[in-house]
Amino acid sequence: MGKTAEIEFTWPKGFYSDGLHSGLRKKRLDLGWFFSEVPASAAGVYTTNKFCAAPTALTKKTIALKQQLQGIVVNSAIANSCTGAQGQQDALTEQLLMAKKLEVKPELIGVASTGVIGETLPMEKIKNGINKLQKTQNAKITEAILTTDTHPKTISIQFEQAGKLCTMSGFCKGSGMIHPKMATMLGFVVTDAKVSGSMLQEMLSNEVETTFNQITVDGDTSTNDMVVTLANGQALGQQIPELIKDTEDYQVFKEVYHQVLSQLAQEIARDGEGATKLVEANVLGAKTKVDAQQVAKAIVGSSLVKTAVFGGDANWGRIIAAIGITAADINVDTVDIYFDDIPVVTQSLGTAFSEEKVAEALSKDKVTITVDLHNGDKKGQAWGCDLTYKYVQINASYRS
To answer: Which residues does the annotation say bind substrate (predicted)?
Structure first.
């Protein structure tokens, strides 16, 4: 890959943002926006939950018109989901309010919400809040979108495109109700590179399969998920032709994009509600890529595996059980399992291993489980977290 560098979170050229407390929450920031000074190529992926929230449906429809967007307004605290005709009208009102303030067409504005399902938005507070938002380059929106998250999740990477220095920055929220295709997560990526909307959509649709769709916290999928990318071309990079995929610029952009999405996805898994450990599952030797991805996600999604990790218990039988319930093509006599690089199962039989060394591996902030199926040459990866007492405490009183 060409020369790239991860830097402190910064907005790419031509992007602006702000965030504030509008009164939706008691004290924390709860409303924000970000926008480009010019219309940008846009791409999005969205929840597969049948009860798609009004703002999510509106943004999906808006991007589909011309694969363009200029900005997005986001609120936390209230999801504006399952709110009927009133919710749809409120999402449209948010779109119009932001468009009017920026003096752009409404069809260039997206809307996103996250929070409690079933409650309508207090539109007077939303209106007053949007009127107070400013054209700044602060990072307050990365805080304004949070719900049960413990911290903002951000990344910025600089790279070259056609000899020009470009920046790609991403931020997201998500902590519970995480089991994408998709989950209660919002992810936004912006770049000043110049990319066609169709190419951006193709990349996002492909990359999300090995990043955001490979994380799980609790197996629940929300109504408000979306990941949206805007590319405004303000770094004056050469546009990537839609069908030419063998150029160096294309490869660099694609790999940076993957790095941004992958790191944001892992940060969501790491910050799972009540979590103390990030769990990474690496699957080798699968017959197909789909098999590898499916097995990896089954492992990190298993409640029994998650509780074993929390307790530091080297109970590899729970991993075997998780693998065995998938639809993947498995040879039940050839499975190897490792905690870090310590073999605990060889050819589907338990091995003599040091309990002390495995306990040490399971005590780390990041627990790595590797499975070799010895049934092909494909590999996959997924991320999750441990399941703790704190998760129950958080979700037992979430609405109140």
So the answer is: 147, 173, 184, 273, 395, 400
